[in-house]
């Protein structure tokens, strides 16, 4: 029997959401963006978390930072310690200090900005005792050693090779401490071999699942919130004893983000 564990999340309302630049293949400034719809989809996601008994806090969105809604990129928080993102792209650099300030003002005294490019939970996913760490498009591989020293947990480097899946959280989802789902084509041959060795019972996503960002999901160990149109993945989750909950994040996908991108987990000490 799978058991849901209460989560503590940080989110950022997409008040200023727009696509005015392109830093990943999903972003096309020529396509219209419906900001009120993005807000409605985000609010529905927030309400879903609350209905599941999770704690959701919010950080104030800042003008001029349309991607700040993607709170997962802001930091990695484990055991009450926060390693705040150092973004690769100039358009997002100012998000880092905003997240650092919020974390310090809300009880995370042991918070500091990464020294090397590191895009938070976009590329760092905790799976049991291991910290799975993506690289290839955003986070610098040298940041893996920095994260290991900071958190004192073994870091498993994984190389992404498809620019459509530019962050680890677009190609892999941690479902519980021992179970993950991932899209094999997003990884280098060596990294795929590592995943097969570490997680022989993983759920394998199809091309169709990946293309709708089905792996950009948030799990509490039982309930898995994910894009509603990842139909094969939803059925696979159900067969494995999880409770999939579909969400419509289509407007936020225009900027290359979905459920997990909007969700930073705040893990306290102990």
TrEMBL record:
The record's section on SUPFAM superfamilies has: Pentein (SSF55909)
InterPro entries, A to Z: DDAH-like
**What does the UniProt keyword field contain?**
Hydrolase
Q: Does the keyword rRNA-binding apply?
A: no
Query: Would I find Lipid biosynthesis among this entry's keywords?
Result: no
Name the protein family.
Belongs to the DDAH family.
Protein's name in the database? Amidinotransferase
